[in-house]
Design goal:
This protein is α+β, with helices and mostly antiparallel strands. It has helices at 10-19, 51-60, 71-75, 78-84, 94-101, 103-113, 126-134, 159-170, 239-259, 293-296, 304-312, 389-401, 416-422; strands at residues 2-7, 27-32, 42-43, 65-68, 89-90, 120-123, 140-144, 153-156, 182-186, 192-199, 204-206, 211-212, 215-217, 221-224, 229-232, 266-275, 278-285, 327-335, 357-361, 364-366, 372-374, 378-386, 408-409. The chain has four domains: 2-93, Rossmann fold, CATH 3.40.50; 119-186, ATP-grasp fold, A domain (Dna Ligase, domain 1), CATH 3.30.1490.20; 192-318, D-amino Acid Aminotransferase, Chain A, domain 1 (2-Layer Sandwich); 327-421, Glycinamide Ribonucleotide Synthetase, Chain A, domain 4. Strands 12, 15, 18, 19, 22 and 23 form a six-stranded antiparallel β-sheet that branches. A five-stranded parallel β-sheet has the order 3-2-1-4-5, with helices on both faces. The termini are far apart. The chain binds adenosine monophosphate and glycine.
Amino acid sequence: MRIMVVGGGGREHAIIKALRKNPSVEEIYCLPGNGGIAADARCVPIGAKNIPAIVGFAREAKIDYAVVAPDDPLALGCVDALAEIGVPAFGPDKKAAVIEASKVFSKDLMKKYGIPTAAYEVFTDAAAALEYVKNTPAPLVVKADGLALGKGVTVCMDRQTAVEAVKACMEDMVFGDSGSRIVIEEFLEGPEVSVLSFTDGETVVPMVSSMDHKRAHDGDTGPNTGGMGTVAPNPYYTPAIAAECMEKIFLPTIRAMKAEGRPFRGCLYFGLMLTKNGPKVIEYNCRFGDPETQVVLPLMESDLLTVMQAVTEGRLKDAEVKFSDKSACCVVLASKGYPGSYAKGCPITLPEAEKNRDIYVAGAALDENGELKSSGGRVLGVVAVEDTLLDAVRGAYEYAEKVDFAGGFKRSDIGARALRAKGE
Ligand code: AMP
Ligand code: GLY
């Protein structure tokens, strides 16, 4: 089979390595990929948002199956456009991708179908939003409606921050059109859990749970990032909580999307907060998470391509989806200065391959001499899989020490909270 993966980060690298395990895979193309992915797939310089070029390439290269990984092409209808030329693709169509592309849509869906989430109000007018903020006690959370590169959410511990967040979205339009409508919601507290799931619109099969570390610095301080590391499984996500989530959140969401005429086929990501009043949805993503995928897929024992095809063809009910009971940890090496401004072009030397260790490349390019240089904020995800979480965390840090990347930094406490929760 000839496979095409749309995207070019660490998540896509992990997906490609997992797809490679299927013996029927002859060739994998990655659009656009990156300098590290080039070791595992043929990278094609077509941007993930360039739908006509992606479709043209799929036709020309006689692609048998596609995986559309990032939010933007999904929201732009990449899966629909590929379907039109007869190329089956993993991922929701445009109608279903709206579950991530519009927070107003997802909040209204949850309200209509009784799915637990933070209480909220929607505003299309800055004056009304500011009036609401004036009359509502902080903390509050201000969210731009549309996609905003993961930066559209401001957790406001005081009223002034909320006023500024509203103005940034609706007056200064810092997120462009994505902020012309906003959601202001109740602040929730509790451990966060990421649950990625496979769903074909009827059946939903959760993958192993995980925990992201979104803040840039140790002790969950500093600015929000795309994710500085992950562990799986998430120790807060007990079997009892998993059963509650299935009954009150996962199945109701799948049924709600179907009832709305937007059946969801692909990976639906549930961002949950385990509050003292039970699990609540913080956000839905219409795709695999990054860097959650880098710890979830290495624990998957079933064949990824087989499961993806079962999703696309609506036969997930009969598919085997098994995960090992080991643990995984991913430590992200980011460019110094990230998520603010940072230098590019810093040399990277990767260590020798080791058993139960892997490195997924997120932001690096090959220079004219074929040498790997940093090219993005998050550069590498260093992953270890071990029998225990403690060994996985240690293993990821030990392997990260063997990477030569002077321009980089990492958090030193990925997994620490999870280990404390386990009492390890
Ligand atoms: P998002 O960009 O939707 O992933 O949100 C970023 C982060 O903001 C989440 O991971 C949470 O830590 C935080 N957050 C979002 N909504 C809420 C809420 N209602 N209460 C507290 N924290 C929130
Ligand atoms: N790690 C969070 C996300 O992928 O949105």
